[in-house]
Structures are given as C-alpha cells and as structure tokens.
Structure of Asparagine--tRNA ligase:
Amino acid sequence: AVVSVKQALSGTYPAGSILTVRGWVRTRRDSKAGLSFVNITDGSCFAPIQAVVPAELANYESEIRHLTSGASLIVTGELVASQGKGQSFEIQAHTVEVCGLVDDPETYPIQPKQHSMEFLREVAHLRPRTNLFGAVTRIRHTMMTAIHRHLTGEGFFWINTPIITTSDAEGAGDMFRLSTLDLANLPRTPEGKIDFRKDFFGREAFLTVSGQLNVEAYALAMSKVYTFGPTFRAENSNTTRHLAEFWMVEPEIAFADLADIASSAEAFLKAIFKAVLEERADDMAFISERVLPGAAERLEAFIQAPFERIDYTDAVKILQNCGEKFEFPVEWGVDLQTEHERYLAEKHVGRPVVVMNYPEAIKSFYMRLNDDGRTVAAMDVLAPGIGEIIGGSQREERLDQLDLRMRQFGLDPATYSWYRDLRRYGSVPHAGYGLGFERLLVYICGLSNIRDAIPYPRAAGTAEF
Ligand code: 4AD
Ligand code: MG
C-alpha cells in the first residue's frame, strides 16, 4: 500500500507490512556496516520516518549516497519495529526511487539546522519544508477546521461575503482601491482626465476590510451566521501584528447583546484551543520545545479558567494606577495601545481578558450607543503576548441613532442605504465579533511576528512570492 508517513507510523499497519512512502529527505547518515539511514518527511505529521537502506540496492552508490536534505524519493519496503527511541516504526527499504536530487546542495537554503525567522521569510516558498513551518501549517489547518466545526455545531451558517466592495465596513478609510490594467479604456472625467476612482465598471471599488455589514444582513434572516475569508487593510503599519492581507472570521448573531457575544467569543476561542491540543499534540510539543516553553500547558490553563471581563472605564483606572511607565499616557477617552492591552492581559490578569464599553468616539459608526450616551457596546478580547485578537460589538439597530452616528463620523447615510434597510425592515438587536485569525495563530504558537503565521505574508515591502 502507498501510505503517508503518518499512516506508516500510526500502528494501523502491523510490522511485516510492505508499504510505500513518498516524501523528502530530511537527513541521511551512512553507517560503516554498509547501510544508510534516511529520514523522510511528507508533511503529514511532525515525525519523519526512517528508511534503512542496504548497500546491496542497485542504485546505492549512484544515487542513495548522493541524497541530501530536500531530495524527493519513493521508498518501498518492510515496516519493522524501530529500535530508535521515540520512533515506533521504520522501513527496511527494498527499493528507493529517487525522484529529484537537490541541485547544488551547499547552497540549498533549507539546511538541516535552525534558521532565523528573518532568513526564512526571504525563502517563503521553501520554508514549509522546515520543522517549524510544518508544525505551524498543520496547526493553522486544525484551527480553520475547528472554527467551522464549532460554529456549525452551534447552529451557525457560513456566509461567503464579497471581497470586492464599494462601502467601507469599518469607516476608517483603510481600503485598497481597485484599478484596471486596461490602459486603453481607462475611465475619463468630463474634462478628459483619467478617473482612477471609477475603475470598477464605472464605479469606485475596494478590497473588503471586513465582511461584517454584508453578514449582518444574513444574520437578520438566518439568525446565526459567520463569514470567514481574507480581508485587506491599507493601514501602513509596519508592525509585528499587522498584515495588509489577513484572514478574519466574523460570527454575527440576531437577538444577541454584548454579554452574549462575550460569552460566545470565549467558548469559540476555547473550542479552538481544545482542538489544537487534541489534534496537534506532536506539533505543540515541538512548539513548546523550540518556540515557547509551556505553550501547550498554557492553552490548557486558559481552557480551564473563565476569561476576565473589565469595563473600559475600569481598565483606564487600572492602567493609571499600576505604576507602569507607558510610552503613551492613558486617560479616559483614548484608544488603548498595544502596550496597554498587553499589560492588562499579561500583568493584570495573566490570561485573555475582555474589555467592554469603549468611548463612542474611538470606535466604529455601527456600534450601539449605550444609555450613558458616551460609550458604545463594544468589546475587545486581549491576549497575553499580542494584545487585541478579537474586536466586536452590539450593532446600532435603531435607524435614527445609526444615522446620527454616520453623520458624526462624516459618512453619508445615502451610500449605506442597503445597510439602513436592515433597520427599517424587522430590525432586532444583534451583535457579532471578528477574530483576527493570524493573531490567534501567533498567540497559540508564541510566534514573534505575524508574518510567520500566514504562508505568504502581505505587508509593506513583502509581495515577492
Ligand atoms: O477590530 P477589527 O477592525 O473589527 C472588525 O473588522 C469588525 N468588523 C469585526 C466584527 O465585529 N465583525 O478587526 C477584527 C480583528 C482584530 O481584533 C485583529 O485581531 C484583526 O482583526 N486585525 C488584523 N490582523 C492582522 N493584520 C491587521 N492589519 C489587522 N487588523 C485587524
Ligand atoms: Mg479592533
């Protein structure tokens, strides 16, 4: 049978089975006894499988002795119980078909040693071959599937909202504008000048910053929905936690308020942590060893303990009285900076924390004004080591209030007419949140830069691949 490395090591096949595995050489070691030990990975699991290759094979001198890290091969042989520690099985090779050797092994970028993250970013097409990126990639996949599974189990429907949009969902002006390459037919102003603003079939269009407004419409028909896809932000933030293209999952719930979504977000994060611990124990063990000591235990602890909830107003007092020297001073009304968020999550609570009821002026136009008239029903979930990972709110379901807030933010209600309709036809209280997927992956794996949490990072100066 042709099996993955994971299947070969799993115990599904008894010793004595004749199996074929296909993959890439991690290391090769030759013994004096006329044998070579070749470690092979195919990405299916953290562990490689060891093939024991006898010198009697016809291509031993011509090919096996030239195998270097990264070469591809197909090995057929007998599965035998391994003497090596930590290895359940190995393969006694009968044939080894070499598919592709590595040109110039000395300059092959992925040598069997620890590379710096900066270096690996420059070889984004080859970094999935490393132990670390293999682990991160599998954890990423497990998180993705856990999200769909958890939300499906809670009765949510997955709604595919558009990437191309004409309205600014966050009202923050951080959108990338679309432009055509059809130079001969560029739209013109009446004066004959090129009108770059009308590039999308005569309209101005952008890459979406959030699917929230679109998914709200579906919540007001399907009750529990979410959108999950790539989102784009043109904020020129050259930081370790911002990407120009990132994935966001945005659950939206009808007949829900701020307390409901705080609970929903907590259960949601815990379900993801649980799936990672259960399905990726081998990868998390490696992460604990290489990147963040105790990474797995930390997630375990977060699953057990309830998340703390703090009012913004109280958070400001905590930050003012904590004695910490912050770069940005704190006073009521200011947006919390990463340093403040991290202090609250790391030092004050030591676990993820939900900060609620922010001043209305620093948050988005669609957030519901509280009865105090100066705060909105918004929440951020802050995590130790990174700060904000989730932003959410109860939405303003009252048309007159929504119009007021749009004008206050300099937005023209006319351009949001379909969104206003939702408040005219059977409006109900509703609320939702958005999880920055890569931020959560950074958090789970203890990575120091969000550019290592997505296969091909897009940020200022990084679009080579
Ligand atoms: O707080 P944000 O801007 O909220 C929204 O977009 C709402 N529409 C969500 C909702 O209520 N449905 O973004 C949500 C999350 C942030 O908490 C952060 O984790 C992540 O998205 N995020 C980014 N991640 C990577 N790079 C960026 N440039 C990000 N901007 C936001
Ligand atoms: Mg936010």
Observations:
- The two ends are 36 Å apart (CA to CA).
